[in-house]
Amino acid sequence: MHTGDTDFEFERRFLVTSLPHHLLEDNSPDIIVQTYFLAKDGYGLRVRLQATQPTAALPLDIDGKAALHRFADEFDLCMLTVKGPNIGGTRYEAERPIDIGVGVAMCARGGTTLAKRRYGVWLGADGWVIDEFCGENRPLVVAECERTSPVVDLEIPSFATAEITGDSRFSNDELVNSPYSVWMKSYLAQLSNQSSRFETGFGKNSYL
């Protein structure tokens, strides 16, 4: 949780076109359900619910509200979060825990919701989060590395297809209103013509 002067997140994000099953076979994913009450121009106000030991897997074809209701009794964490626009891999983020029951009730009554599976892995010198999105955002998979200071001189894993740190379309507060499946084909066509797929303004990139 970010507090005070640390109300900023520093991360780099990458598109993954093939989930690295060899890294995740013994890794049971958390269930993340996020409801946005504001998601516009890079600003977000959301409630995030998380189940860290679900009794069943989150189906990939489920939509956000259905996931909310199906796993309502299994959430063990609820966070209220305010976010600002991403500027060069840095984004304002203030969050605090709230009562799970209140969070579920709020999300059931309003907002727009998405759901995803979340895996955590350690690669090289960094911890990574890999999110596998459900519903209309299938088959999107995003890997991100977050640090307590700007993410520079990063070791990029081999399963990372392209960097999306500066592409606002891939932020969750954009995806909740403009799902990946709607614009995936045009994006992949654009990507196929790019000679460089990783940003060079974050120090020296190396590759795992």
Question: What does it look like?
Answer:
The protein is an alpha+beta fold and 208 residues long. It has one domain: Hypothetical Protein Pfu-838710-001 (Beta Barrel). Helices cover 18% and strands 38% of the residues. It contains five helices and eleven strands. The strands form two sheets. An eight-stranded antiparallel β-barrel has the order 1-5-4-3-2-6-7-8. A two-stranded parallel ribbon has the order 9-11.
The biggest beta sheet is recorded as: 8 strands, antiparallel, barrel
User: How many distinct helices?
Assistant: 5
Q: What is the first-to-last residue Cα distance?
A: 29 Å
Beta-strand content bin: 35-45%
User: What is the chain-wise order of helices and strands?
Assistant: EHEEHEEHEEEEEHHE
For the secondary structure, the number of strands is: 11
Helix share bin: 10-25%
Low-confidence stretches: none
Mind telling me the CATH class? Mainly Beta
CATH architecture level-2 label: Beta Barrel
* Strand order in the largest sheet: 1-5-4-3-2-6-7-8
Q: Could you say what the CATH topology is called?
A: Hypothetical Protein Pfu-838710-001
